[in-house]
UniProtKB/TrEMBL annotation:
Domain of life per record: Bacteria
Catalytic activity field: [glutaredoxin]-dithiol + arsenate + glutathione + H(+) = glutathionyl-S-S-[glutaredoxin] + arsenite + H2O
InterPro entries: Arsenate_reductase, Arsenate_reductase-like, Thioredoxin-like_sf
Source organism of the structure: Paracoccus angustae
Family: Belongs to the ArsC family.
EC number: 1.20.4.1
Enzyme kind, highest EC tier: oxidoreductase
Any one GO molecular function term: arsenate reductase (glutaredoxin) activity
Keywords, alphabetical: Arsenical resistance, Oxidoreductase
This protein's name: Arsenate reductase
Length: 118
């Protein structure tokens, strides 16, 4: 049985779909409500490394304090963006899934099936 961890937002339909798909496939899933238990800056750096993404690629804009915090400023460093995401976890795009074959931002939600396939 494959083991997965999902950074999950139970209020998000996409995140719920991905979690159900993992469970329906028989995966052993650790669920982390990343807004209730935000990742640290170091955890975000490690996740970005596994995802092969930059902080801007994982930065959520809609329904977040993105604009109020001025995060659209192209001169902001990766460290500044990571610090903002650690302080305001709503800025982290979701769901992020970590599994045996790597890590993925499961948007679109069907991306989870690629992870399940191996």
């Amino acid at each position: 049985m494959a083991v997965f961890t999902i950074w999950h937002n139970p209020k998000c339909a996409t995140s719920r779909f991905v979690l159900h798909a993992l469970r329906d496939a028989g995966a052993d899933v650790t669920v982390r409500d990343y807004q209730a238990q935000p990742p640290t800056a170091d955890e975000l750096r490690a996740a970005l490394g596994r995802l092969g993404m930059t902080p801007r690629g994982l930065l959520r804009r809609r329904n977040t304090p993105h604009d109020a915090l001025g995060l659209g400023d192209p001169s902001l460093t990766d460290d500044a963006l990571i610090a903002a995401m650690a302080e305001h976890p709503a800025l982290i795009e979701r769901p992020v899934v970590f599994g045996p074959s790597g890590a993925r931002l499961c948007r679109p939600k069907e991306t989870v099936f690629d992870m399940l396939a191996g």
